[in-house]
Design goal:
The complex is a heterodimer of chains A (224) and B (302). Chain A is 85% helix and 0% strand. With 224 residues, chain A is mostly helical. In chain B, strands 1-2 form a two-stranded antiparallel ribbon. Classes of the chains: A mainly alpha (224), B mainly alpha (302). At the A-B interface, helix 6, helix 7 and helix 8 of A face helix 5 and helix 6 of B.
Chain lengths: 224, 302
């Protein structure tokens, strides 16, 4: 299973590395979202600093939608999805591999966006360990839920409009947990917020998404 | 893969599913309205159940019982039971809101159970898929009603229509995920693949139900905790009986709605099947007509 996962994951990442869609389109989009938040909040630096954690994760969430759509767009042409199905790879391995590839892309995006919030919104990083661990857990959660729903919407004519509707409410707990943990780590929380407790909630949701995806993928791969 | 056979079996049992149909012979007509000679269309669908509705004796009794218990609940809740010391007349919403919320959970729970039954290869039939979509749709209706009645209560009690309380937020999320589920159901395509995808979504989405139910105990929630599900219920006497009766009334209404919605799903399947058969036989009729004209002109030609 893990060998299949690495195979699929490295394939996706290799395609991304060669096509450079993530670096030339998704990453600039994510930064653009951050800049637009600046306009929306009327360049109120205090307000931006206070809301930085939430804005950061909303930007990540919107970019993760693009990353997931991209992850299935590369399977849509040349019958790639059929060959993936016929390859005999373990469905759970395919799921984990595609998730891993999206996780890798999200981590790069988060590093970029993290730099962005520090520079643009003027936040200070108080607890780097909590920040990094939250990023890891939230990325895996977002990628797992996104990959599962991406497979459900794959091949449908209305997938571009349907996918956000399906994914966004399901990953809302990730947004909540990650934002609270980051607020604690950035020192912008209103006192008494235990960031590590929110991180544990985040991890439990991530585990649920991974388990659901690994189980459901065998059903989805064989029939869709 | 076996959608056709499943659908056919189910269409055959449509009568027992409660749809009143009258078998009537529908002559297949050509474009100019002339009936075909008998020999031209050998296997046209001559039997076509004309459907008059989705109700039968069971749903009529259920509907009548729903109305009766709802009227009794309204009378007890509005006239007989006293107003609350603290909340005054507002307490009467307890005879609506908890029951409606429970029916919302019941709808989503039933949807998930039916979806699991569909995913389990041994019990995979179209019936479970229909039950899933029927109960999810009714569940969404009750979920919206829960949010609306809660909001009506919250405005005078908390002073706001909406607050970002865990219970409220998760209920709103629950509504959103099942609206997404219903949107997925409307995407069309291969019914088998769609049923499987939807079933997976339903099983994932229903995980929010226990979180929502326990939200008032897990987090410091503004929403009050359960009134009934505790060792010593918070209300007594006629208030308790009225509240329990409201559960019966809304439960009956829920069953009535799901049954009707299920039958609409049966009819949609049947419509798809018969539409397909009718289209085929029309094409065949055209082909037969062409062949007949061709052979006639052959005979005339020198």
């Amino acid at each position: 299973m893990w060998r299949d996962a690495l195979l699929v994951g490295s394939k996706d990442l290799r395609i991304e590395f060669r096509s450079r869609v993530t670096t030339t389109q998704v990453a600039p989009y994510a930064v653009l979202v951050l800049v637009l938040f600046g306009f929306a909040f009327d360049q109120d630096q205090n307000l931006l600093t206070k809301a930085a954690a939430g804005l950061f994760w909303v930007a990540v969430l919107l970019s993760s939608l693009l990353a997931v759509q991209r992850s299935y767009a590369i399977e849509a042409t040349d019958g790639a999805r059929d060959s993936l199905r016929l390859s005999g790879l373990d469905p759970a391995g395919i799921f984990l591999g595609k998730t891993l590839a999206v996780v890798a892309e999200l981590l790069v995006l988060e590093a970029l966006l993290g730099f962005g919030v520090v520079v643009l919104f003027g936040v200070e990083l108080h607890d780097p360990a909590l920040l990094v661990l939250t990023c890891l857990a939230a990325s895996v959660g977002l990628a797992a839920a996104g990959t599962l729903y991406g497979m459900i919407a794959a091949g449908l004519r209305v997938r571009e409009t349907l996918l956000p509707l399906l994914i966004l409410p399901v990953v809302a707990p990730v947004l909540l947990g990650a934002t609270q943990a980051w607020m604690a780590a950035l020192g912008t929380a209103g006192g008494g917020t235990d960031g590590w407790k929110w991180l544990s909630l985040l991890v439990s949701f991530t585990v649920i998404y991974i388990a659901a995806g690994s189980l459901a993928f065998s059903i989805l791969v064989e029939e869709s | 893969m076996n959608a056709k056979t499943d659908a056919q079996t189910d269409t055959g049992t449509a009568q027992t599913d409660g749809i009143q149909g009258r078998a009537s012979v529908r002559p297949v007509r050509s474009g100019d309205g002339e009936p075909h000679p008998a020999g031209v269309v050998p296997d046209a669908p001559t039997q076509s159940g004309r459907v008059t509705g989705t109700s039968d004796r069971v749903t009529r009794i259920l509907g009548a019982l729903t109305l009766a218990t709802a009227a009794l609940t309204a009378w007890l809740g509005l006239v007989v039971t006293p107003p609350d010391k603290v909340q005054g007349q507002l307490v009467r919403l307890i005879y609506v809101h908890p029951a409606v919320a429970t029916m919302c959970y019941a709808g989503f729970g039933l949807c998930a159970l039916a979806s699991l039954a569909y995913l389990w290869p041994r019990t995979r039939t179209r019936r479970w898929d229909r039950l899933a979509v029927a109960s999810a749709e009714v569940g969404v209706v009750f979920c919206v009603l829960t949010l609306v009645t809660g909001s009506i209560w919250g405005r005078p009690t908390w002073g706001v229509w909406w607050t970002w309380d865990p219970r409220l937020t998760i209920t709103a999320l629950l509504c959103a995920v099942f609206i997404g589920y219903l949107a997925l159901r409307r995407t069309g395509g291969d019914p088998d693949a769609l049923a499987k995808r939807s079933a997976v979504v339903a099983v994932v989405c229903v995980l929010l139900v226990p979180v929502d139910h326990e939200a008032t105990t897990w987090w410091a929630s503004l929403h009050q905790t359960s009134t009934l599900l505790r060792a010593n219920p918070l209300i007594h006497g006629e208030q308790l009986y009225t509240m329990l009766l409201s559960f019966v009334a809304f439960g009956l209404g829920f069953a009535w709605l799901v049954l009707h919605r299920y039958r609409v799903e049966v009819l949609e399947d049947r419509y798809a099947d018969e539409g397909f058969d009718a289209a085929i036989s029309e094409r065949r009729a055209e082909g037969g007509l062409l062949a007949a004209t061709a052979s006639r002109s052959d005979g005339v030609a020198p």
